[in-house]
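Q: Start with the shorter request: fold the first protein.
A: Done. Sequence, then structure:
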Amino acid sequence: MEEKAILRHETLAILNEMDNTTYENRSASLAKQLYNEEAWHQATVIGITIARFPEVATKEIIRRAWLEGKKVAIPETNNKTKTMQFRHYEANDPLIQKALGLYEPTKDAPIIPKEKIELLIVPGVVFRPDGYRIGFGGGFYDRYLAGYEGNTISLCYTDQISTNFTPENHDLPVQKLIIEANQK
């Protein structure tokens, strides 16, 4: 567990060094790679977070999904139970800012059942090449991925790839990593 915390801290320190232009360019490059994926083309419902720096930016991905007629679902977390569910999100829907500065849907937004989400874009801090990840430490996605049968993809900066951690029994890998084509 300690190795994960150290690696998370070190990786976030590196990512936090990015200036805004670099951040936007690197995020845009990863988004373009995502749009070429078959799982993206086939999905009519995607689950995705509203990212905060230094996570790969997702606002343009969400806009693109809407332009392509996809339904977007964003997570609503329950910090007491460390669980989450996804709710339908449309342009101009109200959002609430929760712990750690995350924006989430209000209780008015309809819940999208897990089995309806065809593609889940899974965030993380550190990724192994085999799809295992270190998240932000809450375990929300590992719990949600248990029993999830749709496609999973994570978008990764090259700085986020590491083999310096061992997955734990409860860790679940994503099916596909999209790693930026050009380093910085």
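Q: Next, the second protein, separately.
A: Sequence, then structure:
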Amino acid sequence: MITKYIRCEVPTANKAAFSKGQSLWKETAYSEGFISQLGGWNFSKDKSASNKAIILAHWQDMESIKNFMKLAHDPIAEKTNQVGSYTQISVSYLSAVMNIPASNQVHQHSVDSAFIRIADCYIAPDKADAFLLEQKMLWNPGMQQAKGMLGGQLCQFIDEEHHYLVISYWESEAAHRHYMAEYFPRLKQQAATDIIHTISGHQIQTEPSWRVTP
């Protein structure tokens, strides 16, 4: 699976127009190889919605994405009229490395999640194997214990060998907040301190109108 990771800076005055345009990407659902797309506004430090929009689009492979970009992307983009609504856009492609199991397997990787947590990690050059093992043996089981955790993915940037995203989907922001209070401190105490070189994060309140499924 390939994840297209899109970040846009949107002035406050343009957020309604951007959101309306984003809802028109539903035509993507008819493209071969498309799996799902969802996104929303990144939370700022005071827990209000910031001006950064984040979208995660999942595809079966790069060939499917290339075909979409060649055949369908531009006509849909023209309809959305989003170009003038944002001041900056960044697009990255990542390959799936590992699934993160959900607390309820029925909802694995659910696109119905109301909240997404993204941990953006740069790994020390000689610690990739340790990073993957710790994710599998410590963080995945730890998150799986938390009620309302709907699964996720560990993905690697295709053009950056030591750059990863840990994406987890949650039933609600409250479910993630409970995990951070009740489970995260214990897990962090057990985690190695020399694996991750730098880490930053995003907390995204998803917008239902941006959700796209086949």
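Q: Describe the second briefly.
A: The helical segments are 15-22, 62-80, 128-144, 173-182, 184-190. Residues 119 and 201 are 5 Å apart (CA to CA).
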